[in-house]
Design brief:
The chain is α+β, with helices and mostly antiparallel strands and 243 residues long. Helix content is 47%, strand content 19%. It has helices at 15-27, 40-48, 55-59, 78-90, 97-110, 121-142, 146-172, 220-229, and strands spanning 2-6, 9-13, 175-180, 183-188, 191-195, 203-213, 233-241. Helix 2 (40-48) packs across helix 5 (97-110), helix 2 (40-48) crosses helix 7 and helix 4 runs antiparallel to helix 5.
C-alpha cells in the first residue's frame, strides 16, 4: 500500500492501482520508438502487472507492529516481500514469460542494496534460478542466445523503471526534481513536468484511491473496518511538458 498523509487524512493507493496508472502512462508514450516496439504489448502488460504480487496483502493491509499507522509498502518485512515477489513473478510465467522476466528484473534491481545481506541470499538465489528457467524457455520460443535476450531485458526494463517512477511520484505526492532514462522530471504532487515530453500533449489521468483518518489503528481489523467504509475516488493526475 502507498500511503500519503494529506490534511489530517491518509490517501491510500494499492500497489496494483499504482501499476495500472504506470501502464496507462506508458500506453500513450510516443517517444523512444515505443509505438513500433516489437514487444510493446508485452511491455505494457509487464508494467500493468509489475506489482501483481501485492494484490493479496493490499486486500488486507497491516498496521505497523504494536499498532499505529498503516504499514507502507517499503516497510514490509523480508518474509512478506519474498512471498510477494515469488508470486508476482510466477503468476503469469506461463502466459507471459517475457513480462515475468521484466517483473523479476524489477525485483532484483529494487533490492540490489541487499545483495551482501546474508538474510537476503535465499531471495536472490531463488529469483536467479527462476530467471535461468524463464530465459531458457524464451530462447526456445524467441530464438537467439541467453546473452542476447538478457540485453533485450535490460533495454526493455528502462520503460518499466521509468513508468514506475512517474506513477510512484504522483501516488506518493512527491515534490522535487528527478532524472530517469534520459528524462528530467519535476514532481509537484498530482502534477508531473517532463523534458523531453514523451506524450502527444498535456494529458490527464485518473488515479483510484481511498481516504481514511490519519490516526492510530489498533490492529489490521481496525484498519480493515475503516477501509471497508472508505469510498473509492478518482484523483486527477496531470502530465505536462516542462516550460
Amino acid at each position: 500500500m502507498i500511503i500519503r498523509p494529506r490534511s489530517g487524512k491518509l490517501l491510500l493507493v494499492t500497489q496494483p492501482d499504482h501499476a495500472h496508472l504506470a501502464a496507462e502512462i506508458l500506453s500513450l508514450w510516443r517517444a523512444d520508438d515505443l509505438p513500433r516496439h516489437p514487444r510493446r504489448p508485452e511491455l505494457i502488460f509487464a508494467v500493468r502487472e509489475h506489482d501483481n504480487g501485492w494484490r493479496e496483502p493490499d486486500a488486507a493491509p497491516r498496521v505497523r507492529p504494536g499498532g499505529g499507522a498503516p504499514m507502507p509498502f517499503f516497510e514490509a518485512p523480508l518474509e512478506l516481500r519474498t512471498e510477494i515477489w515469488y508470486r508476482g513473478v510466477d503468476r503469469f510465467s506461463q502466459e507471459h514469460p517475457w513480462a515475468s522476466l521484466l517483473i523479476l528484473e524489477h525485483a532484483l534491481r529494487l533490492h540490489r542494496g541487499e545483495r551482501q545481506d546474508p538474510d537476503w541470499q535465499e531471495f536472490f538465489s531463488t529469483l536467479e534460478e527462476r530467471r535461468r528457467v524463464l530465459l531458457e524457455a524464451a530462447v526456445e520460443t524467441l530464438g537467439g542466445s541467453g546473452a542476447e535476450l538478457s540485453e533485450d531485458i535490460s533495454r526493455d526494463y528502462r520503460f518499466l523503471e521509468l513508468a514506475d517512477l512517474l506513477s510512484l511520484a504522483v501516488c506518493s505526492g512527491w515534490q522535487g526534481e528527478y532524472e530517469c532514462a534520459g528524462y528530467e522530471i519535476e514532481a509537484q504532487e498530482d502534477r508531473l513536468l517532463l523534458s523531453p515530453f514523451p506524450l502527444a500533449g498535456t494529458t490527464r489521468f485518473r488515479l483510484r484511491c481511498r481516504e481514511i483518518d490519519d490516526r492510530s489503528y489498533r490492529d489490521a481489523v481496525d484498519l480493515g473496518v475503516s477501509l471497508a467504509s472508505a469510498r473509492w475516488q478518482d484523483r486527477e493526475i496531470r502530465l505536462e511538458p516542462s516550460s
